[in-house]
Prior knowledge:
The protein is built from 12 helices and 7 strands. By secondary structure, it is mainly alpha-helical.
Amino acid sequence: MARRDAWFLNSVEESLGFLLADNDFDVWIGSVRGSRLEPGLSWHWRPFTMPDIVKLVDAAALLCPISYLNHISSSFVLRAVGLHLDQMLLSLGIHELNFQKVCHFFKSPFSYEYILLVVPTLNLCSNLGVEILNALCDGHLDCGSLLSAITGNNCCFNASRVEYYLQYEPHASSTKNLHHLFQMIRKGTFSKYDYGLLGNLKYYRRLNPPLFSLGDIPESLPLWIGYGGNDALADLTDLRRTMKELRSKPEALYIDYYGHIDFILGVNAKNDVYGDLIRFLGSYSGRHSC
């Protein structure tokens, strides 16, 4: 649940947000997952298939893109999906995942990675919370390396800065957000939120939620996609399916040894990723690259 400030958490010389500004780009940081300033947020995917968004941009760059999730390989996410954790939380009346009240679990001398999940009315340090975590981890996952269990192995993430990152990340999001993601994993679709038959009739006037059509993204919109071979949240099979459905052929940067977090907080991302991304954006805006 990284939010918009994740693009500024490394140094001025390393963070994408600062690098874009230094290269004379106007930097607008949107909030699409929620934050501590937006409790209980219920949001919907709003991709570049929406004409009003396309009109606002000259070109678009996607890091670690996620659309189809059929082949997601994140061991933690797959375990949570299998246990129907999303439906369990909703049935308990928990509608927000609030990450600001931090509870550390599974800390070991060999790992700086933690699970940071505390939700209203459900403190994961409580007996019920511990039972949920045990069901997810015990005998199934190595929760001493939870970040890797969720995102895949990250080559270039500076673990010594975890305590600093935890002052800002992760942030709140709605349980509905989690439920929506898990719906798409279970069904193998890329679609709007499924409210059930009656709810879908109310909101969409149809029995099933509408699909997001990647083919509706205009061929005239230049796209750049960065993805990694160790990214457990954006599997290569799903990514190829995503790219196949696009009408245009995006410029693509593939780094075999990169995981999900490396694109955002990797210490080498400036040289490995951001230079090429800024070159791409600059080629459509007349600005120079770093």
